[in-house]
Amino acid sequence: MSSPFYKPRFLKVFTGLVYLYLFIPIVIVIVFSFNSQKSLQVMDGLSLRWYEEFFDDPTLMDSLLTSVEIALLTMLISTVVGTALAIGLVRAHSGTAKGFNVLMLVPLITPEIVAGISALLIFSQLGIALSIWTIVLAHITFSISYVTIVVRGRLASIGVEVEEAAQDLGASRWESVRLVLVPSLWPAIVAAGLLVFALSFDDFVLSFFTTGEDAQPLPVRIWSMIRFGVSPTINAVGTLMMVVSISAVALAVLIPRLFGRRESGVKVLTGAEE
């Protein structure tokens, strides 16, 4: 007799409950961001009041632009460095490379508060004033590992014969990497860049410890606002942050099509094979 836990009806109900648990808080935030009243518990009509207040608030707009700028810089630098590091670690068949592969996991398992305090201490010891660049440097520290791991997974499935064939046809080693290997890694690079952008855009802990006197990133600004009471504007800000993330996913799906590639959106984001 089969276990009731493996029956299709039970699995469907269980899956539905999990999705409800995951998405109900998000739906509540979105719905109450359109509430016409200040109440966070009773819905009383629909309005764009809180979105208007957000866009009319120069402080919040500065924080939004700062978060986007930090996320873009972190994404660009981490993607380039992480991809180069992944290629070096996979193609360097040595005991040292294996050791570095293990070390790449350290930033992923280090508590963010430890990483934030460490970054703050390093900047203080070096006499570096806290600014937008200290936030970017702190974000890059943990983002490189994500890029390296994602790209390395794709690279491991590509044999070195591809580059050797290009070199046999007259390409230099650099040309074989730039013209043959990197295009093959494109889905993984896009997925890694998207992941880093999302992580950097909504990061709070590292940003909190490395933020200076200039414009604060949006998560830090939201925390400052919550200390003085929860406003419905927070719901509008949260909804807009989700819109930014969804837009990043849509962009990741469209970019390969613009360049004439045939990968589906899922393959672009996951780096799956054809």
Essential attributes:
14 helices; globular; mainly alpha; 274 residues; MetI-like fold
Description:
The chain has helices at about 10-30, 50-55, 60-90, 95-105, 105-110, 110-125, 130-155, 160-170, 175-185, 185-200, 205-210, 220-225, 235-260, 265-270. With about 270 residues, the chain is mainly alpha-helical. It has a single domain (about 55-270), classed as MetI-like fold (Orthogonal Bundle), CATH 1.10.3720.10. Helix 7 (about 130-155) runs antiparallel to helix 10 (about 185-200). The longest helix is centred in the N-terminal third of the chain and has 34 residues, at about 60-90. The model has no long low-confidence stretch (mean pLDDT about 80).
**Named CATH topology:** MetI-like fold
- How many structural units, i.e. domains? 1
Approximate helicity band: over 70%
Shape from CA axes? Answer: globular
How many individual helices?
14
How big is the Rg?
Answer: 23 Å
User: What would you call the structural class?
Assistant: mainly alpha
Average residue pLDDT: 79
Strand content: under 5%
CATH class reads: Mainly Alpha
Low-confidence stretches: none
Summarize the main sheet.
none
Question: Topology of this protein?
Answer:
Blueprint (H helix, E strand, L loop, with lengths): L7 H25 L16 H8 L1 H34 L3 H9 L2 H4 L2 H15 L5 H24 L5 H8 L4 H12 L1 H16 L3 H6 L7 H9 L6 H26 L6 H6 L4
Quick overview of this protein structure:
With about 270 residues, the chain is mainly α.
